[in-house]
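#structure-requests
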Amino acid sequence: MRAAQLVDSQSAPTLTVSDVPSPSPGRGEILIEVYSAGVTHTELLWYPTSHMQDGSLRARAIPGHEFSGVIAQLGDGIEGFSVGEEVFGMNDWYADGATADYCTTLPSSIARKPSSLSHAEAAAVPIDALTAWQGLVDRAKLQSGERLLVHGAAGAVGVFAVQLARLLGAEVFATTSPKTMEFVSRLGAREVIDYTTQSFGRIVRDVDVVFDGVGGETLQRSWDVLKPGGRLVTIAASSEATTDPRVKDAFFIVEPNQQQLTEIGSLLDAGKLRVFVDAEVPFANAAAAYARKIERKHGYGKVVIVMPVYEN
């Protein structure tokens, strides 16, 4: 099969398209024929991309851990799914990803594709929508009537965080760039703050929850806007290696969850959540997509790689 693989580079991680053996599903695994795969630009720098779970070095990793496609083969012991079904989901960070003709995953990591979405749209959902869900519902336990501040509200995760918070009945404040302020307002944010010219700490105080997708100084200044007993969650990769106990407790990495993905799919089909694809990139241009060297339509939402089988 064809796959985009990470190769060593003196300047920055890069991808090359190679012919590699097709994977076979082991017991309890499912083989997916990939139609589209979501792009998370920072993934090329993550620890699981360059290391195995045992800490040994990993070579020629295949990125892209969220996808939409069709079940091509079932491993032994699989129940509840059948060959030919359209599904979407994600796979383990240490496994080879979905920027390839095929990938393997677990049944607990996928759900049936929302019928109202194209494969490109569906591939833009799993990691980002699950991150928003797990951050707001599981960790922050956001309640109706509470005040939420979202940093990076026009990002791939942020767009779901704003929408989900409104569905939960929260009052949403958001930071973003000038060109996406109107868009974030349309998503349901009560007040949108231009982070380039405005200090959110002077505008928003006493919030119940901060959802941080930026990190750094933005994260550090966010503690001051929380009310007593307020909660902060962050997905900023820079927080993973922190020694600050507050940040360690606030940081999390999304996990696959079939039940949550199914509920998200139902909300998408009902029109209560929307997904935004910023660019659909042919597989041949995968390296450019990860290097942020492709033309984007909006400046918000997700970049998705479209496999040749779906292009046709």
